[in-house]
């Protein structure tokens, strides 16, 4: 069981214990002490204290597994490179594929049949592929706001075959109620926000450390006039409204010129000119070959959250039924199909928006 110190993974651990599983808890230490120590206290110490309390109370053994190098190589460097290229990285998607269900699988021995996490998602292995081998489906949790299949959309069949999501059938409210029922030491702890390896440190401060500040212009996309200054295009993402510090708004980020360090803004609630009905993706990933994702009716998320859009995928081109705004290069388009057997939409694949 991968446990983080938060309420979700702690409740998941208790549910597994109640079912009689033989469990070892693992805390993955990915905090980059040398890299980020100047920015504040190490958040992992508080997390680990909660983890120890939860494990001690129910008699589950705990192992702390250092994974800083793997995380740096596979997640942090990707994050910095994407931001520098003007795209919007998603480290949590990469962390799940590369670390939690990747490097961690390689670090433990084969005696562990399953790896459980506190994700709001469901896995089903009921359908059988050709030859009688089971195939696995990644399905949405019933809580559309907390559902985390978006962050799991690059997972493979092999990775999914060993995955367990004990709280996947619950809503966040129900998980909080279970935390009260179990009287967990962290039952009143607030949900973590932001990127896992940064803890409470703002993502902007992390980027400033790596890419520094380089003054550039805010430009009105409609008039071409300069309306303000910023400290680097990498601090902004398409669709962003908050943190622009400009009067006469609302203003939205709609485009970036990487070569000239210009961030283009639109005034008002997203003028018609910045909506898209088509976009392209790269690195297309299909989770289950039994569920084709090309030339069929799909729904797509262009960011984490409850909002989904009807679409079709042909090759690497996504065509939307209705125009949307905030399509950001570097983010992931994650595709869904309704499950004919019920129990949550099926997450069928993903691709990086280009």
Report on the structure:
The chain has 354 residues and is of the alpha+beta class. Among the domains are: 7-118 and 166-198, HUPs (Rossmann fold), CATH 3.40.50.620; 213-272, Adenine nucleotide alpha hydrolases-like domains (SH3 type barrels), CATH 2.30.30. Helices cover 26% and strands 26% of the residues. The chain has helices spanning 7-18, 33-36, 43-58, 68-84, 91-107, 157-161, 172-182, 203-211; strands at 24-29, 61-66, 115-116, 121-124, 137-140, 163-164, 216-220, 226-230, 251-257, 262-267, 276-286, 297-301, 309-314, 317-324, 332-337, 346-353. It has a 6-stranded antiparallel β-barrel. Strand 15 (332-337) and strand 16 form a beta hairpin. Helix 1 (7-18) crosses helix 7.
Helices and strands, in order, run as: HEHHEHHEEEHEHHEEEEEEEEEE
Query: For the report, how would you describe the main beta sheet?
Result: 6 strands, antiparallel, barrel
CATH topology group of one domain? Rossmann fold
Number of helices in the DSSP assignment = 8
Name the beta content range: 25-35%
Mean pLDDT: 90
Instruction: Give the structural class.
Output: alpha+beta
C-alpha-based Rg, rounded: 21 Å
| Assigned CATH architecture of one domain | 3-Layer(aba) Sandwich
> What is the CATH level 1 assignment of one domain?
Alpha Beta
Unreliable sequence segments: none
Number of strands: 16
What percentage of residues falls in helices of 4 or more residues? 25-40%
Question: What is the fourth-level CATH superfamily of one domain?
Answer: HUPs
Shape: globular
Give a topology summary:
Elements: H1 7-18, E1 24-29, H2 33-36, H3 43-58, E2 61-66, H4 68-84, H5 91-107, E3 115-116, E4 121-124, E5 137-140, H6 157-161, E6 163-164, H7 172-182, H8 203-211, E7 216-220, E8 226-230, E9 251-257, E10 262-267, E11 276-286, E12 297-301, E13 309-314, E14 317-324, E15 332-337, E16 346-353
Parallel strand pairs: 1-2, 3-6, 7-10
Antiparallel strand pairs: 4-5, 5-16, 7-8, 9-10, 11-14, 11-16, 12-13, 12-15, 13-14, 15-16
């Amino acid at each position: 069981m991968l446990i983080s110190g938060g309420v979700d993974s702690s409740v998941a651990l208790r549910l597994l214990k109640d079912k009689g599983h033989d469990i070892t808890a693992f805390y993955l230490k990915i905090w980059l002490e040398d890299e980020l120590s100047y920015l504040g206290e190490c958040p992992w110490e508080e997390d680990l204290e909660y983890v120890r309390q939860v494990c001690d109370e129910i008699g589950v053994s705990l192992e702390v597994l250092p994974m800083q190098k793997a995380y740096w190589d596979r997640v942090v460097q990707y994050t910095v490179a994407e931001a520098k290229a003007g795209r919007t990285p998603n480290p949590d998607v990469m962390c799940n594929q590369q670390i939690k269900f990747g490097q961690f699988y390689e670090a433990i021995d084969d005696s562990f049949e399953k790896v459980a996490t506190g994700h709001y998602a469901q896995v089903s292995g009921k359908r059988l592929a050709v030859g009688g081998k089971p195939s696995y489906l990644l399905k949405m949790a019933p809580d559309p706001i907390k559902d985390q299949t978006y962050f799991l959309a690059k997972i493979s069949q092999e990775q999914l075959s060993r995955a367990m999501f004990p709280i996947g059938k619950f809503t966040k409210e129900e998980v909080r109620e279970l935390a009260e029922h179990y009287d967990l030491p962290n039952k009143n702890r607030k949900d973590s926000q932001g990127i896992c390896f940064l803890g409470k440190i703002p993502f902007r401060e992390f980027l400033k450390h790596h890419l520094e500040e380089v003054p550039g212009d805010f430009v009105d996309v409609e008039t071409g006039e300069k309306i303000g200054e910023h400290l680097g295009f990498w601090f902004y993402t398409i669709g962003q409204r908050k943190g622009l510090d400009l009067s006469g708004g609302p203003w939205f980020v709609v485009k970036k010129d990487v070569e000239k360090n210009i961030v283009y803004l639109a005034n008002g609630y997203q003028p018609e000119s910045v909506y898209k009905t088509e976009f392209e993706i790269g690195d297309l990933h299909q989770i289950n070959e039994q569920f084709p994702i090309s030339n069929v009716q799909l729904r797509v998320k262009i960011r984490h959250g409850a909002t989904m859009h009807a679409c079709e995928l042909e090759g690497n081109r996504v065509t939307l039924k209705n125009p949307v705004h905030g399509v950001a290069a570097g983010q992931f388009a994650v595709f869904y199909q309704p499950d004919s057997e019920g129990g949550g939409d099926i997450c069928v694949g993903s691709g990086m928006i280009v």
